[in-house]
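Every protein is a chain of amino acids, and every chain bends into a shape of its own. The protein below has been through that process, and both of its lines are reproduced in full.
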Amino acid sequence: MPDFLIVGGGVIGMMTGLQLADAGHSVAIVERGQCGREASWAGGGIVSPLYPWRYSRPISALSSWSEGRYPELADRLHEETGIDPEYRQKGLLYLRVDDVEQALTWAREVAKPLSRIPADALYAREPKAAPGFESALWMPTLGSIRNPRLGKALRARLMAMSNVTLHEGRAVVRLRAEGRAVRGVEADQGAIAAGETIVCAGAWSRTLLAGVGVDLPVRPVRGQMILFKAPPGLVERVVLKDGRYVIPRGDGRVLAGSTLEEVGFDKQTTQAAFASLHASALSIVPALANCPVEHHWAGLRPGSPDGVPRIGAVPGLEGLHVNAGHYRNGLVLAPASTRLLVDQLIGCEPIVDPSPYRLPA
């Protein structure tokens, strides 16, 4: 019986498993599909909230801690698995921001290198950006990661660890409650027992927890994205405008996203979203009009009322823990939110105050 059973094999679940395994614990991860193929695969990979000055302190605390961990994690995974997660720290350009002064005040308060740059500096950094902008906000330290490759690298590393077992293709039917304790799960191919159970099932976490009388306010929010096959160098860095963005990859491909849709668990793509995303991308980089769209997909974000994830022990149920509700910032917050939970699980000093993320009693 493993020390820890993690329900959900996304980036949150896999990073949790990696840290627990690094600490010498036995870990099992149960995933209804293949690890890293749901929301973790479908996102864009920007390693920051889109407009960080608009977020609450609990999100900012996790984001600030996470930001500096991705270069080291990407290097480690590349070395250990041969899969490059392609962490790129090329900065981010913000076009047409309404609350510039609020942004600059925030940057001074948290010592972030965010500045307003004139048009010549904007177009020197991104020559193919849409013409006509007189200035932009520039954050040089912002990075991005190629999230599908991050998921592949995490999965490969976990598969190589002798104290980790991946149960893929197994849907969890319910949590195994024994009185006021949870001791694993009932899955579609039989029970999996564990000392401690951690729910990291993203948008599906609420349904699982409801089975043991816990109401977790997490809902699915669909996000659609498109991928352009562009020549290398057409876009060099992340560019954001009016809540939409383009993200370049190392091979030249450019992601454009994303929508926010309250449609339940429907992951279908729509022509209306395609047209809207395509138009937004061209309004940022007009030259993308000459590049074919290779792919159009949708994922389900785990939306929470305030965007703050719930992290920690479930009150009143021994052996049950949760890490869910990251909304649009799962990849952004993953290193910190998983470390925060693991710290509590193994008795270390938490990296940040855990109280804002606790489930109510």
